[in-house]
Design brief:
Length: 159
């Protein structure tokens, strides 16, 4: 299976980069894994709704340019479905069984995801009603993908 994470914004903190590198290495045992980092658009202070919409659309176009037609897209969205770790593991396993060997998880920028990206998504996933910095969230997402593979392989992983 091919798992890709498309994330708007660069990782800046060394400790977060180290965590992402560690989970990327661990995931390579289970799947072909890669991360696509896209530059975020600068949001001016006191940006108008129109300016924010334009920024989300620019970021959204960059995201969509990196998604192939045969890809199952999971958008991380506050309005998405909340699932347990076991349910996420089942979802990843079921997608593979059904022949969806290319899965993309999308983490938007600080303003969220453009409507076009949400329309392209096959599934919208929410980790929490809380808001997290996208840099930290990337680590959390990788940990949950890794946990999913451990669960699916019957390997021990703390609960």
């Amino acid at each position: 299976m091919n798992i890709t994470v498309i994330s708007v914004g660069k990782l800046k903190e060394k400790y977060l980069k180290a965590a992402v590198d560690e989970y990327s290495k661990r995931l390579s045992r289970y799947c072909k894994f890669r991360i696509i980092e896209l530059n975020d658009e600068k949001t001016p202070d006191n940006a108008s709704e129109k300016e924010e919409l334009q920024i989300k659309q620019k970021e959204g176009q960059k995201i969509l340019n990196n998604i192939k037609d045969n890809t199952y897209v999971i958008a991380l969205d506050l309005k998405g479905n909340m699932v347990s770790s076991e349910e996420m593991a089942d979802m990843i396993n079921d997608l593979g069984v059904r022949g969806n060997s290319n899965i993309v998880f999308i983490i938007g920028g600080s303003l969220g995801l453009a409507e076009e990206v949400l329309k392209r998504a096959n599934y919208k996933l929410c980790f929490s009603k809380m808001t997290f910095p996208h840099q930290l969230f990337r680590v959390m997402l990788l940990e949950q993908i890794y946990r999913s593979y451990r669960i699916n392989n019957g390997e021990p992983y703390h609960k």
